[in-house]
Amino acid sequence: QLGLDMEELEEIEEDAGLGNGGLGRLAACFLDSMATLGLAAYGYGIRYEYGIFNQKIRDGWQVEEADDWLRHGNPWEKARPEYMLPVHFYGRVEHGATGAKWVDTQVVLALPYDTPVPGYMNNTVNTMRLWSARAPNDFNLRDFNVGDYIQAVLDRNLAENISRVLYPNDNFFEGKELRLKQEYFVVAATLQDIIRRFKASKFGSTDSVRTVFDSFPDQVAIQLNDTHPAMAIPELMRIFVDIEKLPWNTAWDITKRTFAYTNHTVLPEALERWPVDLVEKLLPRHLQIIYEINQRHLDHIASLFPNDMDRLRRMSLIEEGGTKRINMAHLCIVGSHAVNGVAKIHSEIVKTQVFEDFAALEPEKFQNKTNGITPRRWLLLCNPGLAELIAEKIGEDYVRDLSQLTKLHEFVDDDLFIREVAKVKQENKVKFALYLEKEYKVKINPSSMFDVHVKRIHEYKRQLMNCLHIITMYNRIRRDPAKLFVPRTVIIGGKAAPGYHMAKMIIKLINAVAHVVNNDPVVGSKLKVIFLENYRVSLAEKVIPATDLSEQISTAGTEASGTGNMKFMLNGALTIGTMDGANVEMAEEAGEENLFIFGMRVEDVAELDREGYNAQKYYNELPELQQAVDQIESGFFSPKEPELFKDVVNMLFHHDRFKVFADYEAYVKCQEKVSELYLNSKAWTKMVIRNIAAAGKFSSDRTIKEYARDIWHVEPSDLKIPPPNEPRDAVEDKTPNGTAA
Fold first, then answer.
1. What secondary structure does DSSP assign to 584-652, as a single string?
2. Which residue positions does N6-(pyridoxal phosphate)lysine occur at (predicted)?
3. Could you tell me if 161 and 183 lie in one domain?
4. Single pTM value for the model
5. Which sequence positions are flagged as catalytic?
6. 300 in a structural domain
């Protein structure tokens, strides 16, 4: 009626980029699934004023700009000042007859903002509650420095900086005081909120004055999304012991039964290890509690393994040597009743390598919960053409029960269906090609294979290996321009952490290669390379439905799960990938012959580590690799600055932890098989259909049902929306016991 175009409006709205990569996006998918399954669940986090930076590419380099996503306001959130809560920092601990008291603290207020999370076509609307930091009104004024009123008011910023900006590191730990403040801030506010809600419920019964907390773990489950909220464990102990005056053993039993911990990475540089002196300054009481937890934990180990000092050292929550540090993963394992990895292979590595001592002690504590994605966003919303085509064949119920996609196996030989699937993909490609033309002023051939590698830029994800393949294809075209070449548009996108030098060099290299390839008349439209600027969720929704080939090429044993891999599979792309993360289970579901699997397995990588990885050997034995590396080194792609990429080449030869050269040959050969199949459009599309039909396992609905059953012990409820002509019953009576918080 207003003459506005919905699509145009959607383009204007800013992404809420409040996470870095897979971890934050997974939480968003989980919220959607929990609401759709009718679970009484809350998502808690920080309302960052500035989210993940906007990425600009200037002269081939990444440049960061602040993400001022709240500039025009956020219509989906509602501030709830009535639920504002105090959070304490610094101060000191007094020990008296009544126990420990944390005194002389600095107070910051946590102001909650609520965003509704509606389930898909049901009666559930859950809440995501994000905390914003506010200075109390007497901040810096109650002290003796009344003299400078103006400065005191300006200093309110110091407190409010806590929720100012998201740390932009993915899979990397940066031990900064502000980051620890953020982690404790979200934890302290959230636990107060949960306990307030528990006390207000009929379960928080009071004997005289004291609340009885016996039923707390039956009513509340708290899932720790990586170790970032690990301070919740000592914080809940502090509340129970210091404030609610519970005996230590009672408090510890309740705490353990409440928490469960999900591990998201095995990279050592990503594991959180906070310096003891920093924690002592910021949270002195919590350090004491962590020491007490550790003492009791080590006493227990010592009773089981007398005189095994090395085991005690390995399993301690405190790492000695140099600066003393707290190993937050160890704290999470000891303080939780369940620990899980996020794909079968990852959970196996967690159990047998990273935390083997803990798994030997309590094998029943360790589980797997393979990640998933919400089909509402990642099929219905982003690919309506494909969603509709599927619904025509198998009905609409698959949206809530993605396992029904197996019914598509019946149509794998249906010529009409094959043509329609190919047509939807072609339409998506044309639409995306138009978008690229508009945004990047590059003309691309929509009938070329769209070969897409989008994720955070990291050495372990091996964008460099893709780059070497691009150079190899380029050299082959130039060597024999008349030879048949299957045209490709290679699209690489992703953000590098601002302080990650090598990742930024990789972006520059890709752009330098793109400049040479895209401007070589011999190549023409056979090969185009595009670096996709500012990759984010809204851009993923455009590129994924248009993709033919999904690149999932991390070194085996480094990508915990991956979720982009699942999005591509569901949207009719084929996967080229290593046996890593959820790729393994994708191959298991679809049949390994329906993915392009290549390269070393976890065992091969371990074997290569034992004998010592020698990059030079591969360089000497593989002429095409040698040519590509020489071109990078000699400045073929950076003629004005021949030395530009010497750091990259030096890394590849002398300290490449992720063994790019070792998988190069297998990767290039596998890519030849991809090109060969792409020539046969019908055979390609049949493989696509087999992949879509096998994608059902990778719904986050399935993942959440497993968490609910195996960890939280809550039952999904499927209350349908009653028709408008029927009166609505009081739904409160039908909600299951138990709250997943």
1. HHHHHHH-GGGSEE-S--HHHHHHHHHH---HHHHHHH-HHHHHHHHHHHHTTT-TT-TTTTHHHHHHH
2. 567
3. no
4. 0.96
5. 264, 455-456, 461, 563, 567
6. yes
